[in-house]
Prior knowledge:
By secondary structure, the protein is an alpha/beta fold. The chain has helices spanning 3-24, 36-42, 95-108, 127-140, 155-164, 179-182, 198-218, 237-247, 267-270, 278-288, 319-323, 331-358, 417-427, 440-448, 460-474, and strands at 57-60, 69-70, 112-117, 145-150, 169-173, 188-191, 194-197, 222-229, 252-257, 293-295, 306-307, 366-370, 387-393, 398-405, 410-411, 414-415, 432-435, 452-455. The strands form four sheets. It has an eight-stranded mixed sheet. A five-stranded mixed sheet has the order 14-13-12-17-18. The relative contact order is 0.13. It binds FE(8)-S(7) cluster and iron/sulfur cluster. Iron/sulfur cluster binds at residues 67, 69-71, 74, 80-82, 121-122, 151.
Amino acid sequence: MSPTTHTSLASETETQAKKAAQKCGCSSTTPQQIDPKLQERIENHPCYSEEAHHHFARMHVAVAPACNIQCNFCNRKYDCANESRPGVVSELLTPEEAAHKALVIAGKIPQMSVLGIAGPGDPLANPKQTFRTFELVAEQAPDIKLCLSTNGLMLPDYVEKIKELNIDHVTITINMVDPKVGTKIYPWVRYQRKRWKGEEAAQILHERQMEGLQALQEADVLCKVNSVMIPGINDEHLVEVDEVIRSKGAFLHNIMPLISAPEHGTYFGLTGQRGPNPKELKALQDSCSGNMKMMRHCRQCRADAVGLLGEDRSQEFTKQKFLEMTPEYNLEKRQEVRESIQQVREALKVAKAQQATAHQKRGEKVLIAVSTKGGGIVNQHFGHAKEFQIFEVDGVDVKFIGHRKVDLYCQGGYGEAATLDNIIAAIKDCKAVISAKIGDCPQEMLREAGVEPVEGYDTIDKLALTYYEQLQTSH
Ligand code: CLF
Ligand code: SF4
């Protein structure tokens, strides 16, 4: 998307949001629940702020091939499964190529606010490439936030370096705090030139992760913890993991579902270990949510992901393509785009507050699916959705609880019946699906499946609450 396209999308979104706000005439904004200084640090980070993920994009650069542990949900032919979708292979880059790519994308997608290194192996098992990349990007594009994701084994050795380079966001994948559970997840760990197995291996990893987490807190680096939910192995245990990491200062917990397709050739895939279904995942996230923020909008993206979290633009920027592109990084233009996004966000906040005034009667919670291209607006046709965002609505709050990936229904002018069946299966626990437009055939089939098709083009909050109100009065 060019800067111009983005600006027009922004103003279109802004107009929609402002219009919605004006209709009810309310001007108050939603109060922030976290410390304003902290809020500022996460404000434009699409992973650390759920609200930001509707507006800001991230990019990953695949500069880190080696790994120092083995996870049973990972096949080394593919990218690190701790922060990416299993079965995906990224093109490896040198730090110089990675910095070039960052500058190209910063020009083409000015709402890209974060550069992350998350693989294809473990970034801290490749410290030279990882830190060189961050150095080059920080020198040439100072407004891009730097983000690192690691299994934590080598983290205690690099916290100082992380601080020095102003890497303000670090993710550690922590799947256990009990080495006995760890033996079922990690067959080995390579540490201090030795390969450790069994409980010793899990013990080393656990101690290093805890030490790293503590050191990040002391250094005032924001830390998110990712955990892979593996039913029957660590699902119940993750409640304890959540408590421990919270007590040690983690800012955000992201519990992701295990993906274990046999064709990915992972140990879990080949032994028939299943992943959780959306209901199980939500139940665990709900039971862990306590005082700590829970991330529910993770898309388990690739080690070379580019774009908003719900979109994958990596194929527009393959190595062959981006090396031929001239970087058009322009700080001034990027700031203008940021300001226009800020206006949209303000307008959305006003619209949200206005909805809060208009809807004050809580009722039974229902799930609603929404198709959106981002910006907090229902602005996508049903047939163009590659995912549906799922909201839990109770008449007052419209809470984002996750997403469901689907195959595209509209295939160049006609709809695929089999695809429609799969889409309906993916959202059949929802009372309604709201899209900018829904064709007659899907409307009929959705109704038959008990999912009400609703057309609308406005803020997600407004359409969801209006539908909820209609639902209540029709009962
Ligand atoms: Fe990348 Fe990770 Fe940084 Fe985000 S991803 S390194 S924190 S910029 Fe985000 Fe992607 Fe989920 Fe990761 S959606 S897989 S949590
Ligand atoms: Fe694979 Fe990442 Fe685990 Fe290493 S840390 S084995 S790359 S999932």
